[in-house]
Design brief:
GO terms for molecular function: oxidoreductase activity. The chain is of the alpha/beta class and 306 residues long. The radius of gyration is 20 Å and the shape is globular. It has twelve helices and twelve strands.
């Protein structure tokens, strides 16, 4: 325990995932947690956690000053800004930071089939990991997480389920299995990895809350809502073609359909547990119940409507 990083600074703490990572580290007395935020950011953070402000262009001199004395950086910066991490990585090396977790959370960006479909989302993330590898010689360790879709934001946004209308869109026969992870478990996994630098450094870690299928989710949703859902089965390749056509015309609503395709279609990285070793046991992650989590999400959604 004594050799693991203690002072942790979190970048991008105001997004979907960031608050859960902040919460995981803040709850552990081993860590001293702070947040790095852009000057223009309107995000709010827990009042007891120190906030360091940096110019929107991530000025290196400012960054080095802020990062000096920090042991680890956890980055959850938005996908469209991931190349900004280069400036943070450069400053981290100069400041003597020992560990960097890039904003790699989500799909397996190494998957070549998926990268051909959405290079704009995959290439930048993969390039950042390659850049981190080049800094290993300077003493900067890294850990990248493959988590699949974020459970809470994916089910009712990209995976084809509409709880309000009780309609489901299923690709193929809905039997393919793939992985996804809850936000709180991702936060816990990152914290556990930082506590185990000798086992988690300079590698990808593959985690999941659920290994499931579209049919599994549909069955659970029907049970929780006490209703038979209107279900349509779509040809996966046709869905991909239509989504790519939309994007080619500047209609980026097709991205959600492509993310569903890459998650649910075999061979596109959503099924990463078929070819990689799970890190759940290494990180002592809890076993979670898909049905309980879906039921909880439905209650939250109904409360918002009510």
């Amino acid at each position: 325990m004594s050799s693991s990083p203690k002072k942790v600074i979190i970048v991008g703490a105001g997004g979907h995932l960031g608050p859960h990572i902040v919460s995981a580290f803040d709850a552990d007395p081993h860590f001293e947690v702070s947040i790095l935020s852009r000057l223009s950011s309107q995000s709010t953070f827990p009042p007891h956690i120190p906030i360091h402000r940096v110019s929107d262009d991530y000025d290196e001199t400012q960054l080095v000053g802020i990062l000096t004395g920090q042991d680890a950086i956890i980055c959850t910066i938005a996908t469209h800004s991931v190349q900004r991490q280069r400036a943070i990585i450069n400053a981290a090396v100069k400041a003597g930071v020992s560990h960097f977790v890039p904003s790699e959370f989500g799909h397996d960006t190494r998957n070549e089939q998926a990268a051909k479909i959405l290079p704009q989302l995959f290439a930048a993330k993969k390039q950042i990991v390659e850049y981190l590898k080049s800094k290993e010689k300077d003493g900067l360790k890294w850990t990248a997480f493959v988590t699949g879709p974020f459970f809470e934001t994916a089910v009712f946004n990209i995976l084809g389920y509409d709880v309000k209308t009780k309609r489901a869109t299923i690709l193929g026969y809905g039997k393919n299995r793939w992985s996804m992870t809850t936000l709180s478990t991702i936060g816990l996994a990152v914290k556990k990895a930082i506590l185990l630098p000798e086992k988690s450094s300079n590698k990808y870690l593959f985690i999941e809350s659920f290994n499931t299928s579209q049919n599994d989710i549909l069955s659970s949703l029907e049970y929780s809502t006490g209703a038979k859902w209107e279900t349509t089965y779509h040809d996966a390749e046709e869905e991909k073609r239509l989504a790519l056509e939309k994007i080619s015309k500047g209609n980026y609503s097709g991205i959600s359909a492509l993310m569903r395709y890459m998650t649910c279609a075999k061979g596109h990285g959503g099924d990463y547990m078929d070819y990689e070793e799970s890190s759940n046991e290494l990180l002592s992650l809890p076993k979670e119940c898909l049905h309980e989590n879906l039921a909880r999400m439905i209650r939250v959604d109904e409360a918002k409507i009510g």
